[in-house]
Design brief:
The chain starts with a helix and ends in a 15-residue tail after the last strand. It is mainly alpha-helical and 618 residues long.
Length: 618
């Protein structure tokens, strides 16, 4: 046994270090994501003001914006000489660790075991049910919202412990990186705060936490308001919602556009989560209240997103993107299902636990009836027959068989990584179980401290050698497949963009296809317009809409324009080059500057040119 308390602490530190590193690798990390490629240019311009001089979208971020503090952190770290890819990897690793440890701590506040905390964390990382609007609790891409989410989870932890000022301080801090990720949790758990303040008859108990959250949110909103970047009344409510919601973000904002399966899964999950929280046997009434109130508060808030966006349009509600409350509702619903799994496990129904986890990670039509049966079985049966556990395992096997039919190799690989992730998250529970039984195995007890240290040291060495590319091929290939550290994909478009950095001036302006926003980051050149690059200011939104209309005046899509139409469009915006594909526009009669694969960049002729230049490849 480990006798020294300091040695015990060190050994446990290495256990947690190992489970964080291994689960991080199993979960994955993706630097070259669409969202992040849209962020890189306005990081670049803060370091080199000569870049993107004619790009209206990037120029917006030279002023204050909701991502100002995020940009400040990134640029501050880059000024120390740290490469951008390492900044994102390091911050994401810290964020992931904070998120996972926060969930473990939050689950244990509800008397969950380490195994239950591992299951809750596994579900929060992977479950697609319980949300609408294509939002999630956590992603593999290090976007600003992910920077904020771990702060939010720790805010929940402190609020559960009734440390309101500290909890709302974390919500306010999260608001600096993504204002909605900080504000919505503070609103959803407001019933907890109101109840506690009323029971103690202390008004300051309510005012101080809300004031702290207001300071955090105000540090983002007030500068934008004072500088006229938002709330300038340049756009009517209907105009703003049409541009910001209907055209650009219908998948986040316009509830009537959300697909039916999304709403069905959301309502099924939310209804069963409420029923489950009410019927949990081992959870005290006060703890049930804490689980239920964020879900119920979210259900009251969500209809406002339809009423005040689609029926009585109000700009403020469109900006709130109220579908973003659903990941936090999902968190407490999954926490409740984790506690249900703990009760089922204590009744020796391991199969039911595995079946429930499978349904929540790989949802299908059986989600509602099977989860309902598990909830009612736990409610009514004091002991669950072994046969039910075996039946549950059989159903799980059937569901997994159906899952892998379409693409067996990829599905088996994905399921394998999910199993590895769950196993990695279970490491602390496994070590705890082994430690509690050491008295039965004296020989193993002597090796136990070394085992705990090795659990941390071996993954740490794999991580260090993997990042350096020094692992044997059998280990390096899976590692590289899960931890993507390059900010680009080695595609034709990337190679073309990288090449034209050497052959075009920094102040070049390029007309590109609407969906090719990544070309801006690859080439470090200004582009006329992309659909994804919507600014935050009212004036920027107006300009984006004007360009969106211009891009569709002569043809509905970029590829349907004739070459002459593209040239006319480029000349109207004073662009120097046009990006297209040979299969869209063959036999280009203009000077071709560069090409890669199917992609072609040609020079825009002067408006008074009398003859077309013959194409020439360099």
């Amino acid at each position: 046994m480990i006798k020294s308390e300091s040695v015990l602490f060190q050994a446990k530190f290495f256990v947690y270090l190992g489970f964080l590193i291994t689960s991080f690798i199993a979960y994955g990390y993706q630097l070259a994501s669409d969202n992040l490629l849209n962020h890189f240019p306005y990081i670049d311009i803060l370091l080199d003001r000569d870049l993107y001089p004619h790009d209206f979208y990037v120029q917006e971020f030279t002023r204050f914006s909701p991502r100002y503090y995020y940009q400040l952190c990134v640029v501050g770290l880059m000024s120390l000489g740290i490469p951008l890819s390492w900044i994102y990897l390091s911050v994401y690793a810290c964020t992931y660790s904070g998120f996972v440890l926060g969930l473990f701590t939050l689950a244990q506040k509800f008397q969950a075991s380490l195994a239950t905390a591992a299951l809750v964390t596994f579900l929060c990382l992977n479950s697609p049910v319980g949300t609408v609007g294509f939002v999630s609790l956590f992603k593999t891409e290090p976007v600003p919202a992910i920077w904020a989410i771990s702060l939010t989870v720790w805010g929940f932890v402190f609020c559960v412990s009734r440390r309101w000022i500290l909890g709302y301080f974390f919500f306010g801090l999260a608001s600096l990186f993504q204002i909605l990720v900080g504000v919505f949790p503070g609103i959803l758990i407001l019933p907890w705060l109101l109840k506690d303040a009323y029971s103690q008859r202390k008004l300051q108990k309510l005012i101080l936490p809300l004031l702290i959250l207001g300071i955090g949110a105000g540090a983002v909103y007030i500068p934008m308001k004072l500088t006229g970047l938002t709330g300038s009344e340049a756009l009517s409510h209907q105009e703003f919602i049409n541009i910001y919601g209907v055209i650009r973000h219908p998948h986040h904002i316009i509830f009537s556009r959300f697909q039916h399966p999304q709403w069905l899964n959301f309502w099924v999950f939310s209804s069963l989560a409420i029923l489950n929280c009410i019927t949990l046997k081992t959870v005290a009434l006060n703890e049930k209240y804490k689980l239920l109130s964020p879900i119920l508060a979210g259900l009251l808030i969500l209809p406002l997103g339809y009423i005040f966006v689609e029926i009585y349009p109000i700009t403020f509600f469109a900006k709130l993107q109220l579908a973003r409350v659903t990941p936090f509702m999902q968190l407490f619903g999954l926490l409740g299902f984790g506690l249900l799994a703990q009760e089922l496990f204590r009744k020796k129904s391991v199969g039911s636990v595995i079946l429930m986890a499978t349904l929540l990670v790989l949802p299908n039509l059986a989600l509602a009836p099977i989860l309902l049966i598990l909830i009612l079985t736990n409610l009514w049966l004091p002991r669950i027959p072994k046969i039910q556990s075996w039946i549950a395992l059989g159903i799980t096997a059937s569901l997994l068989t159906v899952q892998i039919q379409d693409n067996p190799s990829q599905s088996i690989r994905d399921l394998g990584w999910l199993a590895v992730l769950w196993g990695c998250l279970m490491i602390p529970a496994g070590v705890q179980k082994l430690e509690s039984n050491l008295h039965k195995f004296q020989r193993i007890s002597r090796l136990f401290p070394g085992l705990m240290y090795s659990i941390g040291l071996v993954p740490l060495l794999i991580l260090i050698f993997g990042l350096g590319g020094w692992l044997p091929r059998s280990l390096q290939n899976p590692f590289d497949g899960r931890v993507e550290r390059q900010w680009f994909h080695n595609s034709d478009l990337y190679r073309l963009g990288h090449h034209i950095q050497d052959i075009t001036p920094k102040d070049s302006l390029i007309l590109v296809p609407d969906s090719s926003h990544e070309f801006r980051a690859y080439s470090k050149r200004s582009v006329v317009f992309t659909i994804k690059s919507l600014p935050f200011s009212d004036a920027g939104i107006q300009e984006w809409f004007r360009r969106w209309q211009k891009m569709r005046e002569q043809a509905p899509t970029y590829r349907q324009h004739t070459l002459e139409q593209l040239v006319t469009l480029a000349q109207e915006f004073e662009a120097d080059y046009v990006l297209t594909q040979e299969d869209w526009h063959p036999d280009i009669p203009y000077l071709v500057i560069a090409s890669e694969g199917d992609w072609v960049l040609f020079q825009v002729p002067s408006s008074d040119s009398e003859a077309l230049l013959q194409s020439e490849e360099l």
